[in-house]
Structures are given as structure tokens and as C-alpha cells.
Design goal:
Layout lengths: L1 H30 L8 E2 L5 E15 L3 E12 L2 H21 L7 E13 L6 E16 L6 H10 L6 E8 L4 H26 L3 E9 L6 E2 L6 H7 L13 E13 L1
Antiparallel strand pairs: 1-2, 2-9, 3-5, 3-6, 4-5, 6-8, 7-9
Length: about 260
């Protein structure tokens, strides 16, 4: 009798489970819910599968602007004297830049420091004096492929004793049109990949549902000019600075997901 009761108990449990599963299926079927390979949803909440592809676009253009950085450093018995000596050279440089047609808004002070200079050649530290240092960054706009305007300015500034050139950066003042062109190329490449993938998969490609723009700005640095002023003072530098601007690469990278069905 005990065995019969256990069997009846198991049958009852099985019936209850079956009724629960049937009831759940009924509820699910009436809500329109289904279990599927979920993708990305569109604006209405409809579930979509998706195809993702990356595309990059690159265009090249000749720079129309150069950025020159240079500095002066002077050591004297007092901080005031050292700073006055530096300011004298900074003012001479500013006068030259003004005569060259550089607007004041395109000249920026990049650093100004005053510190004690020591002699470390012996075991006992000795104070040499006070050193003042100041630097400028200058934007030279509207340059040609040979950067003629830039070379003229550099040759003039190099006449100031002990000037220290840090280098030159070539750039484009307004890259918006180039980025537009590069972005168009990147989108076309990504779409071509997505179309081919959809065709290979036998599905229909829908509109984009997600786009990430990984654009970045870029520039080209010329060879640093750290030794130019010393060579100029020693008479070993060429009479005119030779520069080549090269070309800038404007690059855009897009990551795009399209709906598919």
C-alpha cells in the first residue's frame, strides 16, 4: 500500500508540473514574447539582429600653418637682473614677430621660471647665481609648401644671442572639410563591408542603429632645431633655413552597426 501511495504522489507532482508548463506557454503565447537570438532593439523596441563593420578614411593635405617654439635663458647675480636680461631678448623677439606680420593673438608664453643655479663640480655645492627662463610659442599662418615665411622668421630670430629653438610643428588651421571627406570615405568602406556580409549571410541589411566616430587630429613634426642657433652663431648654419612642410594625414575611423532581418 505504501508503494502505491508513493506512486500516486509522484503522478500528482508530474501533473502539477505539466499544468504549470502549459499555463506558462499559454501566457507567453498571448504576450507575443518569444525566445530568440537577441540582437539590438530599434526605436520601437522591436528586437533586431545586427551586422557591425569598421571603416577608415584618410585624406592628405599640405599644411598652411606652422608653430614655432623657442626660449631664452639667462643667469645673473640676482633674480631681477636675470629676468631683465631674458625680458630684453623676449621683447626683441616680439618686435621681430610684429614686423613679420604675426598677430599678438598668435603668440603665447609657454613657460616662465626663475631658479637658483648651482655648481655641482665639487663635493661642496656652490651658488653660481639666479637663472631666469622664458619661452614663446608662435603660430605662423598662411604658409606655402616651402614655408618661406617661416624660414624668414627663424633666420631673423636666430640673430638673437643664445636663442633656443625647440622645434617646429606643421598643421592645418581649419581641417573641417578634410574631416568631412575622410568621414565619407570611412562610412563608405564600412557600408561596403556590411553589404557584403549581409549578402554572404543571405539577410537583408537595414538602416544603421549605432555609429561610433573615432576621429582624431594629427600633425607632422619637422626635425627638432635644438642646435640651429648655435650653428648660426658659429657661422656653420646655412644662410637660409631649409624646411619642407610635407603632407598631413587627416584620419577618421567609424564603427557602425546595421540592423538586419
Amino acid at each position: 500500500m505504501k508503494k502505491i501511495n508513493e506512486n500516486i504522489h509522484l503522478v500528482v507532482i508530474a501533473v502539477i508540473i505539466a499544468i504549470g508548463l502549459l499555463a506558462g506557454a499559454f501566457v507567453i503565447s498571448n504576450t507575443g514574447f518569444s525566445i530568440r537570438n537577441l540582437g539590438t532593439t530599434d526605436s520601437t523596441g522591436r528586437v533586431l539582429n545586427s551586422i557591425s563593420a569598421n571603416g577608415d578614411g584618410k585624406v592628405y593635405a599640405t599644411p598652411d600653418m606652422a608653430v614655432i617654439t623657442f626660449s631664452f635663458s639667462e643667469t645673473a647675480a640676482t633674480s631681477k637682473e636675470a629676468l631683465e636680461n631674458v625680458n630684453t631678448k623676449i621683447n626683441s623677439a616680439l618686435d621681430m614677430l610684429t614686423l613679420a606680420g604675426i598677430d599678438a593673438s598668435d603668440i603665447t608664453t609657454t613657460q616662465l621660471s626663475i631658479y637658483t643655479e648651482y655648481d655641482w663640480s665639487s663635493s661642496e655645492r656652490k651658488v653660481i647665481g639666479q637663472t631666469a627662463s622664458s619661452g614663446l610659442e608662435v603660430k605662423v599662418k598662411g604658409i606655402d609648401a616651402k614655408a618661406t615665411k617661416v624660414t624668414t622668421i627663424i633666420d631673423q630670430l636666430a640673430e638673437i644671442e643664445k636663442i633656443q629653438f625647440s622645434g617646429i610643428t606643421f598643421d592645418i588651421e581649419d581641417k573641417s572639410n578634410y574631416f568631412t571627406e575622410a568621414r565619407d570615405l570611412a562610412f563608405s568602406k564600412a557600408k561596403q563591408k556590411a553589404v557584403e556580409l549581409a549578402s554572404l549571410s543571405g539577410v537583408k541589411l537595414l538602416t544603421p542603429i549605432a555609429i561610433t566616430d573615432n576621429s582624431y587630429d594629427s600633425y607632422y613634426n619637422s626635425t627638432p632645431m635644438l642646435n640651429y642657433a648655435l650653428d648660426k652663431a658659429a657661422g656653420t648654419a646655412e644662410s637660409s633655413t631649409a624646411l619642407a612642410t610635407g603632407e598631413l594625414e587627416i584620419s577618421v575611423s567609424l564603427s557602425i552597426s546595421w540592423g538586419m532581418e
